[in-house]
Structure formats: C-alpha cells, structure tokens
Amino acid sequence: MYEGAVQDLIDELGRLPGVGPKSAQRIAFHVLASDAEEVERLSRALTDVKAKVRFCEICGNVSEQPQCRICTDTRRTSDILCVVEEPKDVVSIERTREFRGRYHVLGGAINPIDGVGPDDLRIRELMTRLADGQVEEVILATDPNIEGEATATYLARMLRGMGIAVSRLASGLPVGGDLEYADEVTLGRAFEGRRRVEA
Amino acid sequence: MYEGAVQDLIDELGRLPGVGPKSAQRIAFHVLASDAEEVERLSRALTDVKAKVRFCEICGNVSEQPQCRICTDTRRTSDILCVVEEPKDVVSIERTREFRGRYHVLGGAINPIDGVGPDDLRIRELMTRLADGQVEEVILATDPNIEGEATATYLARMLRGMGIAVSRLASGLPVGGDLEYADEVTLGRAFEGRRRVEA
Predict the structure, then answer these.
(1) Where exactly are the transmembrane stretches of this chain (chains A, B) (predicted)?
(2) Hey, which residues 6-35 in chain A have their CB within 8 Å of chain B?
(3) For chain B, how far is it from start to end, CA to CA, in angstroms?
(4) What is the pLDDT of residues A91-144, one digit of tens each?
(5) CATH number for the domain that contains residue A23
(6) pLDDT the model gives residue A94
(7) What does the alpha-carbon distance between residue B179 and residue B177 come to, in Å, rounded to a whole number?
(8) Are the beta carbons of A17 and B36 separated by less than 8 Å?
C-alpha cells in the first residue's frame, strides 16, 4: 500500500498487542513527523530492553541483574511469598505498600484453551523454593478470573500437607466503587467474605 | 516503577499516539517475550522510516525517491488533481481504484485552534503546480469535518477565475468523520458523485 519503509513499519507495529492496522498507520505517520532523535530513542529502548532485561533467576520477575531488586533486598521478609501471574502484577502490589515479603512470578496462568498447562508455568521453580521450609505463608495472588482461580486451586492442592499457610487475595467490592455497578459474581463474593464489624 | 530499561521502553511507547500507560506496559512485556530478531526488525523499521522516507518534491506524498510512484507513473492523467490533507488519504483513495489522476498533499488542514494557517500547508506549491494550465479539474478531497471544509472553501476561493473546474467529494461520507475511516465503497461513491463548487 505504502512504499517500502513506511509499509514495513506499519506491518511491524501491527504485530504489537492492541495495535490494529489503523493505529499502526497513525503511529507510523507520527514517527515520520517526529524528530530523528526521538525515534532513535524509541528504537534504542526496544533493543535495550531485549539486551539488558532478563528474568530474575529466583522469582522470575523482570530484572537487569541475575537477581532482581526485591529478591536481593535484605529488608524484606522471606517468610511470606506472594505468587503472581506476571511481572506487572508485582508492580501493582508494590504500589499498595502493603506487602513486605517476596514474590514468585509464574509467567501466566493455567489456560487449557490457549494450551497453557502447569508445566508451562514456573511451578517447579516454586516448589524448589519452598523446599527449604523457610516460607511460612504463600499468598496466591493470581487474577480473580477463571484461569487465575484454576491456577490458584491447582497450586493450593500442590501445597497441601507441606505445613505452609496458603491464602488467596480477598474478593469483594472495589473500594470507591458503587454497589449498583458491581457484577453478580463480585457482589456474591463480597457477601460470602463479609467480615464482622466492631462498632 | 520497573527497572531502568523496561521503564524507559514503557515511557517511550507511551509517547506514541493512542498508546496509554496500560498499552505501553502490555507492549513492553510483549517485546520482552518476543524473539530478539523480531524486536530488531521493529527497531530497524523505526529508524529506517526516518532515514529513507522523504516527501515527494512534486505532490508532498511520502516517498523513498525524490518523486513518488504516482507522480512518476506515466499511465496516469495530469488533467485532474486530487487535493488531500495527508499521505494516508492518498492510500485510502488509491484503494478505491476510482481515480487515475494525480495528487497534491497539503500536509494538514486549516485549523486556527491548533495554529495551522494556509501558510503552514503546501498551498503555494499547489498554485505553482497549477500555473502551467495543464490541470483541468481540481478535486478538493479534504476531510468532511470543520477543518477540511474550511480548507476546501479557502482553496475554492483561491482557484476561482483560473479556468479550472473545482469539485468536492460528494456527501455520502459521514459528516464529522475522518476520510481515512471511510470504507472503499463509500469513498468510491463519493468520487463518482463529486459536485462542482461555486465559490
């Protein structure tokens, strides 16, 4: 459609998640109109991320060192381990400043439709980490959807009988939300998980 | 939030049009999970487009040569000139296969709010092209929105008394929309039904 280099860029951009043909075209023309320096920065950021970033050999989070900042932070407790699906979940939880333990990143969730089974996740690595008996509690912080629940159930079964407390993040109404906009499942969970109020 | 290279990439991606923080994060993790070769291709496509692509010295369309493929195509008629805002509009019109004349790309539309006046568009170049009297009809194919209409009206006035037929794409294009989002059939009909403009 376009001449070589423009179409090549549109094609490459179109392979990115969430970037359709129209967005790819819009981005390509934005790039054409940008300073060469700005484009150079984006181009370098792309190759840098592949060259510099690896996965932490302990927890599987993204890291520029063999071990990530959280795994090497001596101020954090090793008694409690939070299991998440993706590195971005670590960022979300860190933002709450509620958790001072360690993480384990599975790299996804069990999803038979997409062909993701337990062996495709970092579950073996999790069991190896737990073998030394240092961890007292595992929080299963997988997503509150079908795949995340299935993964949590699978892991809870694997951890049974190891003398480790296993917990799951509470489901309920989002804080600041409106009850009338909550879906049935969330509202049902909020009822199940209701807590006594000391007035 | 993330370590250096990942956050750098998220920041750079977030500057692209239509890419919010969540999309930038999703794309960054997609990049991390992609083959190095694939990322290299995207990175190269970005710098290539800046290095190789220029604007056709005749029509202002994107081109890897001093003159674009359409301007140098001897099978096309030079009697009829289609004036568009952006290179992507040329692609949309070419897709209809309704038009066998030449193009003139203005590089935008008159938009006082964004500070784009007639002098910021390739209008002088248009008048120079028309000076030799070869063009018999000018089709004003600017977008059917306020800025596009204003630009068409402005051009129609400038072209008055030059002995050139001036037309505007027929309505049928949704008013308030963008030309680039029109489907081939609608855009083709709009070509067929173009009307003479009395300025």
Answers:
(1) none
(2) 6, 8-9, 11-13, 15-19, 22-23, 25-32, 34
(3) 58
(4) 888 888 888 999 999 999 999 998 999 999 999 999 999 999 999 999 999 888
(5) 1.10.8.420
(6) 87
(7) 7
(8) no
Clarify whether residues B123 and B73 are in a common domain.
yes
Rounded to whole angstroms, how far apart are CA atoms B144 and B133?
28
Q: Helices (H) and strands (E) in chain B — how many of each?
A: 7, 7
Q: Which residues of B48-74 are buried (b: 16+ CB within 10 A; e: fewer)?
A: bbbeebebbebbbbbbbeeebebbeee
Query: Is residue A75 located within the same domain as residue A113?
Result: yes
Residue type, A186: T
Question: Is 80 exceeded by the pLDDT of residue B141?
Answer: yes
Residue A75 lies in a domain: yes
Chain A's closest residue to B90, CA to CA, is A2
Domain hosting A111: range is 62-168
Q: Report yes or no: B159 and B116 within 8 Å, Cβ to Cβ.
A: no
Same domain for A84 and A46, yes or no, is no
Give the count of beta carbons closer than 10 Å to the beta carbon of residue B175. 9
- The CATH number given to whatever domain includes residue B147 is 3.40.1360.10
Is residue A161 within 8 angstroms of chain B, CB to CB? no
Q: Which residues of A touch B64 (CB under 8 A)?
A: 3-5
CB contact under 8 A, A62 and B86: no
Nearest CA to B22 out of A183, A187, A81, A88 is that of A88
Q: Which ranges of chain A have pLDDT less than 50?
A: none
Question: Are B50 and A32 an interchain contact pair (Cβ–Cβ within 8 Å)?
Answer: yes
Can you list the positions of beta strands (E) in A72-164? 80-84, 102-105, 137-140
User: Of B9, B18, B53, which is closest to A46 when you measure between CB atoms?
Assistant: B9
Contact state of A49 with B15 under an 8 Å Cβ cutoff: no
Higher pLDDT, B194 or A51: A51
Positive or negative, the Cα torsion across A190, A154, A117, A124? positive
